[in-house]
């Protein structure tokens, strides 16, 4: 394959691969330096928040779920999340933030590699070409680099989800279930994949998840102590239940600002009298002014309808893990979690790595409409660069297109028995 890069002229496959690899390394190093700078300044970085919460809960014995406002984003994370972060607490900020960047960078690369291999036909001995990895990396570059720059944990959660599926695809169901439980213990939304595996009859994976649950909660108890662990867990549940009931308003009006690309946040921006939150005084995009109660009810109905639609697409019965449908179904569920979650900050869209890998692979043989829709979805995702466009929920629209395309692919292929 020949590729032309600015200033380098036509390149053959090997030269193009080396040039793009060098470019990627330079970009990652630059973004990593920015991530460390942000963490040291304590501004626009999640690293200092991660470490501060972990310091209080793990080292100081403080129940952060009671001492911090319930509307704070970090109070939605389970206690295991802060135990997971605890090894970074004693480290100097520069060293800790550098290691966090390195972990994010390696996991991002690993997620891209595994996603492409998952999407590639399992009976193809040749394996995917390097251009498949480069293309997916290019599509997800902006979201991935923004996650790294702000020291988010989303890349790591996505890594464990994809790794779990990768292991199950290769017949290691118990290990895959265990790894999926790690992702679920960091953030609850991957639990939807465990429900799907149970429906599909992957009982070894569910057994592995059960072992993971016992092991990880045992670790939390060991680190925090029995009484502190129980108290913190109860307080977390006390925060989580009202949040689940309140939906997007679980974080107040801040939850509907432009960076929240969930269906609920979009509905509130368009149909209730709230600011769009795009740092422009008085900027709103609402076309109606429904009451919050009415809007919340409609959002619950819409979310339920989407969930039922996906259940209809998936159908019943076992599906072979080495089939294309298995990966397509998992990718569709990953899109669903992004759309129906009350809070889906733009950086959470890193979860779309596997969905885009599946669609890019399918685009090799799919019809023209699929190609056009996929290009539109990518363009809409890239509108996250501009905060004003995010207020109009264009990245959400891109995610919905991805979901529709995945549903269409899944329905086209019969479900082979496991």
Main sheet record: 2 strands, antiparallel
* Uncertain segments: 1-9
Strand order of the largest sheet: 1-2
Helix content: 55-70%
Strand content: under 5%
Which class do the helix and strand fractions yield?
Answer: mainly alpha
**What is the β-strand count?**
2
Rounded Rg: 21 Å
What structural keywords apply?
single chain; 418 residues; mainly alpha; two-stranded antiparallel ribbon; 18 helices; 2 strands; 67% helix; globular
Describe the model.
The longest helix is centred in the N-terminal third of the chain and has 29 residues, at 13-41. It is globular, with a radius of gyration of 21 Å. The chain is 67% helix and 1% strand. With 418 residues, it is an all-alpha fold. It starts with a strand and ends in a 6-residue tail after the last helix. A two-stranded antiparallel sheet has the order 1-2. Helix 5 packs parallel to helix 15 (353-362).
In a nutshell, what does this entry contain?
This protein has about 425 residues and is mainly alpha-helical. About 65% of the residues lie in helices and about 0% in strands. A two-stranded antiparallel sheet has the order 1-2.
Write the layout of secondary structure elements.
Blueprint lengths: L2 E3 L3 E3 L1 H29 L5 H13 L4 H4 L11 H7 L7 H27 L10 H20 L4 H16 L3 H14 L4 H9 L3 H22 L1 H21 L16 H9 L20 H23 L9 H17 L12 H10 L5 H15 L4 H5 L2 H19 L6
Antiparallel strand pairs: 1-2
Helix pairs in contact: 1-5, 1-6, 2-4, 5-6, 5-7, 5-15, 6-15, 7-8, 8-10, 10-11, 12-13, 13-14, 14-15, 14-18, 15-18, 16-18
């Amino acid at each position: 394959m020949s590729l032309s890069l600015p200033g380098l002229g036509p390149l053959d496959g090997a030269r193009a691969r080396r040039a793009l690899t060098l470019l990627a390394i330079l970009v990652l190093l630059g973004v990593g330096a920015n991530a460390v700078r942000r963490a040291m300044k304590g501004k626009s970085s999640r690293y200092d928040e991660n470490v501060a919460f972990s310091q209080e809960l793990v080292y100081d014995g403080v129940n952060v779920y009671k001492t911090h406002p319930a509307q704070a984003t970090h109070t939605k994370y389970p206690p295991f999340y802060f135990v997971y972060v605890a090894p970074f607490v004693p480290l100097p900020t520069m060293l800790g933030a550098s290691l966090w960047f390195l972990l994010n960078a390696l996991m991002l690369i690993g997620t891209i590699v595994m996603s492409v291999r998952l999407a590639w036909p399992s009976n193809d001995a040749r394996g995917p070409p390097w251009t498949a990895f480069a293309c997916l990396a290019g599509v997800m570059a902006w979201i991935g680099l923004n996650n790294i720059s702000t020291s988010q944990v989303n890349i790591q959660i996505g890594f464990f989800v994809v790794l779990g599926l990768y292991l199950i695809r290769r017949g290691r169901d118990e290990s895959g279930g265990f790894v999926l439980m790690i992702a679920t213990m960091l953030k609850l939304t991957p639990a939807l994949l465990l429900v799907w595996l149970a429906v599909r009859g992957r009982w070894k994976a569910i057994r592995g998840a059960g072992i993971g649950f016992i092991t990880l909660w045992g670790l939390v108890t060991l680190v925090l102590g029995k009484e502190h662990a129980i108290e913190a867990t109860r307080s977390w549940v006390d925060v989580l239940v009202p949040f689940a009931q309140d939906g997007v308003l679980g974080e107040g009006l801040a939850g509907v600002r432009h960076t929240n690309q969930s269906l609920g946040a979009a509905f509130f921006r368009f149909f209730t009298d709230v600011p769009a939150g795009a740092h422009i005084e008085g900027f709103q995009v609402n076309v109606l002014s429904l009451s919050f109660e009415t809007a919340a009810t409609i959002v619950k109905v819409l979310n339920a309808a989407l969930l039922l639609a996906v259940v209809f697409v998936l159908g019943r019965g076992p599906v072979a893990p080495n089939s294309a449908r298995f990966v397509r179904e998992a990718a569709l569920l990953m899109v669903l979690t992004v759309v129906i979650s009350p809070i889906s900050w733009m950086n959470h869209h890193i979860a779309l790595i596997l969905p885009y890998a599946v669609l890019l692979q399918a685009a090799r043989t799919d019809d023209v409409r699929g190609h056009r829709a996929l290009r539109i979805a990518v363009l809409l995702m890239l509108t996250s660069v501009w905060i004003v466009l995010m207020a109009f929920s264009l990245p959400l629209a891109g995610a919905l297109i991805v979901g529709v395309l995945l549903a269409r692919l899944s329905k086209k292929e019969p479900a082979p028995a496991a």
